Structures are given as C-alpha cells and as structure tokens.
Amino acid sequence: MAENTQTYVWHPTPEQVADANVTRLARAHGITGIDELRARSVEDVAWYWDAAIQDLGLPFRQPYERVLDISRGIEHPDWFIGGRLNIVDACLSRWTADPVSAARDAVVHEAEDGTVTRLTYAELEDQVSRAAAGLRRLGVGRGDAVAIYLPMIPAAVISLYAVARIGAVLVPLFSGFAPTAIASRLQDADAKAVIVADGTVRRRKRVAMKPLLDEALRDCPSVESVIVVRNLGEGAANDGEADTSEGHPAEIAWETLVDNDGDSEPVAEMSAAETFMLAYTSGTTGRPKGAVHTQAGFLVKVASEVAYSFDVSAGGVFCWITDMGWVMGPLSMVGTHANGATLLLYEGSPDVPDLNRLWNLVARHRVTMLGVSPTLIRTLRLTEATTDLPDLSSVRVIGSTGEPWDAAAYEWMARDLFGGRVPVINFSGGTEVGGSFLAPYPVESIRSCSLGGPSLGMDVDVVDDQGHSVRGEVGELVCRQPWPAMTRSIWKDDERYLEAYWSTFPGMWRHGDYALVEDGQWFIRGRSDDVMNVAGKRLAPAEVEAVMVTHPAVAEAAAIGVPDAKKGESVWAFWVPRADADVDVSAELRDMVADQVGKPFAPSLVQRVTRLPKTRSQKIMRRAVRAAAMGTDPGDLAGAENPEAIDEIRASIGDRRPTA
C-alpha cells in the first residue's frame, strides 16, 4: 500500500491540546484523550450529541424531551424529540444580543478584482430581517422551497438565514449549473421562489447566470417569484411586472426585496425535525437526489464539526473556497456562525492574478482555518507560486475534503510550506451525511494523508462483502448507528433512499466509499463504483494516481478500470503534464506503477491529455473519464467545470476503445 512509504506525522504540542475546543468537551466529562472520547461517543450516541449541544451552547426555544428515538427503525430516526428552535437563533440572534459580538465581522467577501465587503453580526441580522420581510411580502412562508442560485457573495449568506428565519426550505444550487440541471432541481423541490445573481466573475471573465435561469424556468411552473441580485450591475429586474401572458414569474430586484424596516413577525419557531434544506446530489442515472436536512440535525452536526475538528471559535476566521451548491457552502456558513466566528468568502478563481492569490488572501484577512483541495495543492507545488510568500502565521488548521491525497503533495504542504506546525484535518463525508464520517482532531498525531479516525458520534466501520469488520485490507465504509444530520430520506422517494444506503448491508448505512484501516489510521481509497477489479484484486484509482503524480512531469492523473477479456478489468491511466513538460513520459509512468503497485496493475494504456474533467470544487470526475474512454453516456455533467475535457479524452482514444 502506498501509505506504508509515508513517514510524515504531525504531532500536537501540549499547548495545542490544552487549548483545543474538543479538549474542553472531554474535560467537562472527565474524559482523557480523543480515543476515549471517540469510544464514549459511539457507546452512547445520544449522550454525545446532547453533550455537544450543551458545550456549544446551541439554543433550543423549547428543550427536547429525549435525544433519540429509533422506534421506526434505524433508517428513520427521530432526533431531539419535542425540541423547538431556529437556526437563526444559534447563528445570529445570540451573538447580536451582546454589543461586543454584535460588532464582530460575520462575513467578509473578497471579489476577484480585490474589492472587499464586510458585514458585522448586527448588520447581517438586519439584512436577514429585511430579506425575510421581503420574502413574506411575496407570499413565501413556512415549508415553501426557495432556491438560491448565487455565487459566494454576501447575498448568499443573507438569503440562507432569511429562508430559515421564516421557516421556508433552502434549495442551494451550484453556481455553474446549466439550465437543464437547474430545472430538474427546481421541479423536484417544487420551488416557489428563486434568488439569482445576474452573473459572477471567474478568471476575469463575466459569467452570466440569470439567462440560464430564465431558460430553466420555461419548465418550472411552480416558481412564482425571481429575486435578482445585480452582482455585475447589469440591468434591473422588472420589479413585479410579470409577463403573465407567457407564464413567467414576477421579477423583483434584491434592492427592492430588502427595502423595508425588517421583519415584524418573530423568527419562526420550528420543530427539531422540520426541513431546513434540500441538498441535491448528482446521480449517475436518473434525477438528482434531494438529501433532506433538518433545522436541528444540520445545525448540531456542522456546529460540532467546525468547533471540534477545525477548532474554530469566536475570533477565528474560516475560509473554504467552495460553492453554495456543495454541502461545504451551507456547512461553512452555519458552522462558522454557530461558533461566533468570521466567514471569509472568496468569489472568483484562486489563480487570479496568479497562483499566490490564495496565500495573499490568507495573509490579508488573517485566516485561521483554511480549506484547500489536493488538486489545488498539487498545482501550487509544481509551480513557482510559493516563492516570497506572505505571512501565513495566522493559520492554525488546514481543512481538506472531496478527494484522496498523494503523499508528495500532502507532505509538501504540511511539512515544507507550513513547517509542520499545523494539523491537516482531512475529512470525509458527503451531502447526504451533512458533514463527515471520518476526521482527525487537532489533539492527536496525524499520519500523512490520513483521515484520522471516526468523527465523534459516528459509529463507522470498514466491512467485507459479507458485512464483517476488516482491518488492514480495503472494504466498504459503513455506519452502524444514525446521526443527527443523516438525510431524512430522499425527497419524495423513500424507496430510492432505502435502496441507495440500506439495501447492501441490512442495518448498516453503506456510503459507497472504499476505505482502509491500517495501524489505527483511516484512509479513503475512492468511491466503490470507481474501484477497479483486476484479476480478482481490488485496486483503488488513488493507488495508481499517487504513483504517477510523483513524476516531475505530471501535474495530475486519473486511473480507471476498463473491460479486459483476461483480467476482468485492466487499468487505463490519463495524465496532464505540468506547464514546463514537453516530453511524453507515458512509458515511464507505466513502469513506475508496475514497480510500486505491482506488475498485474501496470496500466495497459497510459495517455497524455491537456486536462481532465473536474467539478468546480476540483474533484476529478472519474466516471466521466471512464465514459469518455468507453464511448458511453457520462451521465449528469451539471457539476462539471470543463465538460469539454471529455471530448478530448474521447479523441485521444481513437479506435483503441475497449469492448464492454
């Protein structure tokens, strides 16, 4: 296994352990160390989630009578029975009640051109109240779905809390979606209103968003109102003059929506189980899946993760380059504000004007928790983008999610760039999880590329095909007990929910990831539908890719399995050269994989390409790579940043396409 060659281990200092939020939680219950806390948190999951709520001071207007009820089965748990609350209470109202915290920055936004906008907690709550009043005037109320099709700008944060304040249901959409993808989600959610930006800027180019929504709305009769944020300052909405002859919804300018004295009605008091958000994931086939997240469940899970995994508290600055359409967007907002910290939003590309943009962003705003992607770090490592770095001393924690690390990039960042002084909190979960299954904590030693161990309160395991626990070998990642942010089914399709997550191993949630537990450390080996079966042996794409990206000519790589008459599957690999590489090293890469992974796993095809298809969050879309190689339908590409890369892969294969 590739991990056996890794030598870098991060060790916390005594001061880091003593000052950590998770230490405070453990100390309050007489618990010594993270291992003991992990064990206690799954021996009695109800105890843990109640303890986290008390430690973080998350307010319930009406206290819950019981933490957990699984009388309807583990697949349909009820949490915080009898409790009533609103996310706005925890994220805004309790901070604005104190003049000191009310004056603290809640949101700082930096645009690609360097323009900075700030909102204190008091200013944010005022804007939320005004937006909530505007939504009520449009007839939006409790239980109505409101979609947000916005880049990471202050209006996205205001909109999230305004929707929650009135008890409506949030439907966040990826800012790069095409009309078909937008329409499918609006239709499934029966959205009543949409908040959209005229556009955004990415790599100095103006990217229109409103026209894409207009096209989608032709097939979305449930939408009655469209609120337009003039992010680019282009054109005004018609302020309610709906083109009813064509069935178009009314358009209202954002300025008009918030032009009032604020919401005169009190914050909606919600039951713990009422829906806060529908977070859509893309399926390989069929319509997107709407994960159902509740007011209490999402709040408690993400507040605890930002506090304990990322060690964020009041005075901290949280920054993750993400999008509203991924769970990290809402997680960043709710998790940061539930802990009284400052959320830094960046709108644009992290390589404009150059690849030092990220580090300059950190230095300018004194970021304490920085979220990155392995792909971004690999790119930075292979450039001169880290010469003459600004002051990065404010960073206390680095976060990462979405794809496996390779040791070279991980260790360069952790050891060489940050001097081994900060932990890398590499965590793994998903949209339907509402957070993480696995995460290290900043109070334990963390091995290179490791996910540490189970997140607190998460009874996860790795099992073989018969559902038996395995260690030292790759198996399926499962969870044996429910957690508060577990999706409450799939919107309108409970049968699909049960089939997707509960049918493989009865009584256990199957997440679809292959994982490995080795020497007490946990590693994700990729999606189980990405894992290859070569002559009866499972091989994760990350094992091949981790070898290939160590070559100085390789910027990134993707490995897939294709049909093979003798082996069942054989490995095909695609690689992107770094900017200064002008030779084809495909033969060398094949030999490297044979030497380091094993001759049976040497790729039968190694192909140089100029790019690989990725999501906006920079995850390589291996399913799309495989579809391009096979000449089959790549499925839902709504989240792809560069779908044209698929055509290049198809062309590079020519007549060498395998037979299914």
Could you characterize the architecture of this molecule?
The chain has 660 residues and is an alpha/beta fold. Among the domains are: 115-271, 3-Layer(aba) Sandwich (Rossmann fold); 530-656, 2-Layer Sandwich (GMP Synthetase, Chain A, domain 3). 30% of the residues lie in helices and 24% in strands. It contains 21 helices and 34 strands. Strands 6-5-18-17-19-20-21 form a seven-stranded mixed beta sheet, sandwiched between helices. α4 packs across α12, α7 (121-137) packs across α8 and α15 (374-381) crosses α16 (407-417). The protein is globular, with a radius of gyration of 24 Å. The two termini are 29 Å apart. Mean pLDDT is 90; it is low at 1-5 and 240-245.
Question: Top keywords for this entry?
Answer:
660 residues; disordered N terminus; alpha/beta; single chain; seven-stranded mixed β-sheet; five-stranded parallel β-sheet; GMP Synthetase, Chain A, domain 3; 34 strands; 21 helices; Rossmann fold
Average residue pLDDT? 90
Major sheet strand order: 6-5-18-17-19-20-21
Alpha-carbon distance between the two ends: 29 Å
Q: SS-based structural class?
A: alpha/beta
Biggest pleated-sheet summary: 7 strands, mixed
What's the count of strands? 34
Report the uncertain regions: 1-5, 240-245
**Helix proportion:** 25-40%
CATH topology of one domain: Rossmann fold
CATH architectural group of one domain: 3-Layer(aba) Sandwich
Beta percentage is 15-25%
**Helical element count?**
21
Radius of gyration: 24 Å
The CATH class of one domain is identified as Alpha Beta
Shape: globular
